[in-house]
Amino acid sequence: TYAFQWRMARDTVVIERPTIPASADWGFGATTPQKLIVVEEDTAPSFKGSVPDQTWEVGKPVSVPLPEARGGNGAPRYSFSGCRIPGGVRRSGRQLSGTPTAKSGLRTCTWTVTDSDANTAASDSDSLTFTVEVKEPDTAPVLDGGFEDQTWEVGKKIDVPELPEAEGGNGPLSYSLSDCLPGGVTPTGRQLSGTPEAVW
Asked: Engineered SS bond to 200: which of 4, 59, 182, 185, CB 3.0-4.6 Å?
């Protein structure tokens, strides 16, 4: 009867005590080695979960946890590639955090894990991809000033200033006027023109 002592040696388990006589019979005709080495199975690390596509706003803080990997051999090694992280945001370990400082277009980012064994094949790793876009803050346009009430005469061409212009908002502004004009008067852009045709 033999009692064994185990210890870890990198990716192997070494059974090294006691020193078994070379003449010991294992019952299948082979002599006993001085050490029995059990090699750990080579497995690839993998992510459980994903990273949703990200849409951030300039000036608004963000905090995005990146998934942890399971499995593999030895300690996991993470890398972030495929895109430049927008200004104001940094990666620390498995966390993206900060406050975006400027608008940026759509970018595709890759989050990769490898393990610590000698196998460097692509099959011994795992990757996730997601997109990041930074937009201007969502703000509402504001009309600059008001517009005086109008009194027009039938058959007399109107002469009025442009309707107020708006400031702010996101992207090009669109103007509209509800159904409130008498026949003969039409809007063109921010300008009203024409001759009223009837009392209204």
From this structure: 182
Per-residue model confidence (pLDDT) at position 168: 85
Coil/strand/helix, residue 21:
coil
| CA separation, residue 162 to residues 85, 173, 183, 196 (Å) | 45, 16, 19, 18
Give the three-class secondary structure for 7.
strand
User: pTM to 2 decimals?
Assistant: 0.58
CA dihedral 51, 57, 87, 106 (to 10 degrees): 60
Q: Beta 191-194 vs 104-114: how paired, if at all?
A: unpaired
Q: In the chain, what is the straight-line distance between the N-terminal and C-terminal CA atoms, in Å?
A: 112
Measure the CA–CA gap between 82 and 17, rounded to whole angstroms: 50
| Residues, the chain | 200
